[in-house]
């Protein structure tokens, strides 16, 4: 095996900092890389963490291969792939960021499909006394009082974009737009409510189900925002021979049942 030179290490570190986030611990040996017999490197929306962690473990038991997953906002992951991050598979929480990569020819379009769906919900801490029925002009600002509404970044992160669109459709956005606690991804928004730092938050139904410290007050009507879909594709730069096999496994009954158990909408027949 050959150790990387100091110049190579420095050059890679500078590149990682330019991307904005060091996605995985820096590796110096070729055999330690995700592509070297350990399965594909998957960049996935933060809301998929619990489901994909379980699926990854099941796939390892079945195939002996280890998929390595990195979770963050879809926007951040897409930008990292654009800058050369070595992902084999990308799973977005909306069509926009997958389209962003497709337009730049950074995915293998023939491998793309919609993996699952989700719902958008309004949450509060488990011990909260607040109640809410979501509808046209519902009094969200009054419910917040002096508190803030936890949301993923409304300008770029899918959960935040869906949430803003829903509030605009319902006539509630103007009353709360100056009371938003914006988080880097939907799981960070969930944490703000779970820790009691925000009295209300907008997250996916699956996020709320995964955290026993929050409760769902109501779900947003699906007519108030674009369909919440998770497109998946192999990246154009991927040479990992196990990436197609992992994609195929995600379509199996075993994998789809995990998504269903986590509260995702199952879109594939199995």
Q: Based on Cα principal axes, name the global outline.
A: globular
Whole-number tally of structural domains: 2
Measure the end-to-end span.
Answer: 44 Å
- CATH-defined fold name of the largest domain: D-Maltodextrin-Binding Protein, domain 2
**Average pLDDT number:** 89
In total, the number of strands is 11
Class of secondary structure makeup? alpha/beta
The CATH homologous superfamily of the largest domain is termed Periplasmic binding protein-like II
Radius of gyration computed on alpha carbons? 20 Å
- Compute the number of helices: 11
Pick out the low-confidence regions. Answer: 1-36
**Regarding CATH, which class of the largest domain?**
Alpha Beta
Major sheet size, sense and barrel closure: 6 strands, mixed
**Strand order, sheet with most strands:** 2-1-3-10-4-11
Helical proportion, percent range: 25-40%
User: In the CATH hierarchy, what is the architecture of the largest domain at level 2?
Assistant: 3-Layer(aba) Sandwich
Order of helices and strands: HEHEHEHEEHEHHEHEHEEHHE
What oligomeric assembly is this protein in? single chain
Query: Roughly what fraction of the amino acids lie in strands?
Result: 15-25%
């Amino acid at each position: 095996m050959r150790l990387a030179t100091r110049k190579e290490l420095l050059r890679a570190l500078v590149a990682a900092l330019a991307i904005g986030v060091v996605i995985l611990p820096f590796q110096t040996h070729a055999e330690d890389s995700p592509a070297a017999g350990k399965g594909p490197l998957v960049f996935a929306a933060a809301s998929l963490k619990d489901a994909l962690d379980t699926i990854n473990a099941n796939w390892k038991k079945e195939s002996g291969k280890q998929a390595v997953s990195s979770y963050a906002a879809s926007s951040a992951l897409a930008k990292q792939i654009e800058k050369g991050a070595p992902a084999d598979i990308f799973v977005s929480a909306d069509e926009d960021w997958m389209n962003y990569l497709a337009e730049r020819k950074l995915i293998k379009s023939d491998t793309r499909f919609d993996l699952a769906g989700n719902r958008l919900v309004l949450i509060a801490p488990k011990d909260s006394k607040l109640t809410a029925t979501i509808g046209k002009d519902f009094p969200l600002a009054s419910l917040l009082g002096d508190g803030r509404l936890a949301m993923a970044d409304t300008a770029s992160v899918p959960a935040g974009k869906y949430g803003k669109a829903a509030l605009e459709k319902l006539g509630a956005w103007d009353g709360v737009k100056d009371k938003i606690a914006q988080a880097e991804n939907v799981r960070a928004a969930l944490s703000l409510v779970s820790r009691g730092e925000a009295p209300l938050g907008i997250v996916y139904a699956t996020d709320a189900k995964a955290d026993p410290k929050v409760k769902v007050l109501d779900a947003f009507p699906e007519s108030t925002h674009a369909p919440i879909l998770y497109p998946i594709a192999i990246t154009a730069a991927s040479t990992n021979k196990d990436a197609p096999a992992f994609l195929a496994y995600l379509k199996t009954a075993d994998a789809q049942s995990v998504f269903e158990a986590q509260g995702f909408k199952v879109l594939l027949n199995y």
